[in-house]
Amino acid sequence: MVPAGLLHPGRPGGCCLLVIRGCVHTRCRMPFQLAPMIMLFALVMGCVSPLTSAADTAAPIRRSEYLAVDGARLFLLTRGTDRRAPVLLWLHGGPGGPERPLFRYFNGVLENHFVVAYWDQRGAGRSFDPQADPHRLTISRHLADLDAVVDHLRKVLGQDKLVLIGHSWGSVLGVLYAQHHPEKVSAFIGVAQVVSWLRTQQAQYDFVAAEAARRKDEAPLTRLREMGPPPYETFDQQAAMEDLVDQYGAVFHKKPCKICVVIRGMITGLVTPWELLSIHRGIHVSLDAMTSELLSLNLERAVPSVGVPVFFFLGRHDRQVESTIAAGYFETLRAPRKQLIWFEDSAHNVPFEEPELFNETVVSTLRSIAMRRQSP
Asked: CA–CA separation, 165 vs 341, rounded Å?
């Protein structure tokens, strides 16, 4: 899922940029975190370069490219101060919510420790094609795309395995891929791990109903009655529910200044109106195309075990994908090594709410399984 208010950092699937929702016009209906994500995206695009250390210049890598994969052009950005470092591939949320700008802005310091690859999935961000057939946006197609990206990185960087780190919807993609290709994955980090789209939607509904009743908020209760209970298959329904959840600090526990980010991005030319429209369309198309399939997926049944080390990073206040569901799945998931880490001051968007702690935890966690730079 994408964080509401950022580019869609993760919507049950994902987040991206600071969703512009609630910024310029209160009636703005940008998806989930799309509005905020987009805002942040603008800021991110203008503040990326300072994140990379100029001191550590040992064989740096700065690579931007499009990969031709089964009728699509997939955008891939690869950066790091030392190309011998372990490879970390971000899997953004959504589906369709490109978080690359947010990852680079808040978590760009990871490029000093790893070779970090940022991939815009099919139908998202710079990989979005308005002429593409939305029926091709499926879980299996995304997994095949991911395999092509992984093999490309392994070949270019001369490494057998890499680390997958997935946020929200990206966490689903990562678990499924690690299950099928453990020989290519050294570890998996699930951030705001999604387990079941249907259970997530029901948990959102129950949370808003209980919180609104406790606070005697009639407007949200009226909206819930109008929407009815899950399942919700359309983008508009899911965006409306995310708005309700976000009212109670359960998408962003720490909310950034979305208006500030959007204004700064527009004034400085970091993002254009047509770019924002493209991002919005990508999230809209992806969610409408994929939600029906996602509602039938339950990782507790589909992925009872994974043959690689698994780490869950969960926000204590996350009700966008309900962190307690992920914690329950963690208890039953079988893996050669696993660890659950709670972030006490975050909701759904851990990398953007507690970035310093998040970055430090990624480094220390991977060091604990002896992830080191390769020899020259």
From this structure: 14
